[in-house]
Amino acid sequence: MSRLTLPPNAPFSGAQKMWLKGFLDGVSSVIVPASGGSSTQSTAPTGLPVTILWGSQTGNSQGLGKKLSKSLAAKGHSPTLRDMAEVSPADLTNAENVLIITSTYGDGEPPDNAAALHAALHADDAPLLETVNFAVLALGDSNYAEFCKCGRDFHNRLTALGAKPLIPIIEVDVDYDEPFANWTKQLEQVLVA
Ligand SMILES: Cc1cc2nc3c(=O)[nH]c(=O)nc-3n(C[C@H](O)[C@H](O)[C@H](O)COP(=O)(O)O)c2cc1C
Predict the structure, then answer these.
(1) Is the CB of 162 under 6 A from ligand 1?
(2) Residue nearest to atom 9 of ligand 1 (CA)
C-alpha cells in the first residue's frame, strides 16, 4: 500500500491540513512496510507447524515435551505433542519441524514407548526425511556407560536419512531444567517463519 496523502484541493484550513498530514503519516508508518516488502508480508502469520515427540520411561521427557509445547504456542507456533509410540517414520515425512525429547534406558536402550520408532527408523526401508528440520534433547544420567545414547541414535539416524538439524543435539544429565530452558530459547530463535 502506498503512503496516504491529502488531495491538494481538500477543503481544510492550513492548520487542519497540517494536523491531518501528521495523522496520515502516522497511519502510513504502521501499514507501509519499512523495507520494501508488500503489506501482505507484514501481516503474514508467524507461526510454524512443529511436531514434538517424546520418548519417556518415567515421565521426565514427557513433562518437558508439554512445557516446550506451551512455550512454542505462546510464541505463536502450532505445536503438536505426540507420544513416540503413536508415530511411524512415514508420519515424519510430512512433518516440517520435528523436535525430539527422549531419555535412554536399560543399557543404552530407548524407553519402551520409543522402541518401535527407533527400530523402524533404523531399518533399511526407512524413508528419506530430506524435507524435515529437527532437533534432539537427549536426557540421561552420566553414571551410565551409554550416556544419552538413545537421543544420539535419533540425531545420527535422522541426519543419515537427510533431515537437517536446526541446532546441535543437547545431551543432558539429571539436572536438566537449565539446559532445557536454554534449548527452548535456541529453538525459539531458529524457528522463525
Ligand atoms: C534402569 C535405568 C536405566 C537407565 N539407563 C540409562 C542409560 O543407559 N544411559 C543414560 O544416559 N541414562 C540412563 N538412565 C537415566 C535416565 O535416562 C534419566 O533418569 C532420565 O531423566 C529419565 O527420563 P524419563 O523419565 O523421560 O524416562 C537410566 C535410568 C534407569 C532408572
Answers:
(1) no
(2) 147
pLDDT at 140 over 50: yes
Question: Does the beta carbon of 144 lie inside 6 Å of ligand 1?
Answer: yes
Half-sphere exposure of 60 (CA within 13 A, CB side): 18
What are the pLDDT digits (tens) for 22-35?
A: 555 544 443 333 33
Burial class of residue 4, CB neighbours in 10 A (0-12, 13-18, 19+): middle
* pLDDT tens profile 46-59: 699 999 999 999 99
Distance 98 CA to ligand 1 centre (A): 22
- Structural domains of the chain ordered from first start: 1-44 (no CATH), 49-190 (3.40.50.360)
